[in-house]
Design a protein that fits this description.
The chain is mainly α. The chain has one domain (3-88). Helix content is 82%, strand content 0%. The longest helix is centred in the first third of the chain and has 25 residues, at 3-27. 25% of the residues are buried.
């Protein structure tokens, strides 16, 4: 399997689990994962896992930063992929 596919699978699983773990911690009033970290893992390629985690766990769905930020990250990543594919491949 190609390295990029393995990376994307692992980063998306990690993002999904982080969103679930943060929701778990929030219900127990424990120390939370920072919003920066949650958005960063999405920006590093875990946007599908982050979106699924948001939806399944009903976590961060009221925060504009996440409701708008994650789709913006997806659009930026798609634009970057398009640019790379048209310029270098």
């Amino acid at each position: 399997m190609h390295f990029s596919v393995i990376y994307l699978v692992l980063i998306n699983v990690a993002a999904f689990l982080l969103y679930g773990f943060d929701k778990y911690k929030s219900k127990r009033n424990q120390r939370r994962i920072s919003e920066f970290s949650l958005l960063l893992i999405a920006a590093l390629g875990g946007n599908i896992g982050a979106l699924l985690g948001m939806d399944l766990f009903r976590h961060k769905t009221r925060h504009k930063k996440f409701r708008i930020g994650l789709p913006v990250i997806v659009l930026l990543q798609l634009a970057l992929m398009y640019f790379i594919m048209t310029r270098f491949l």
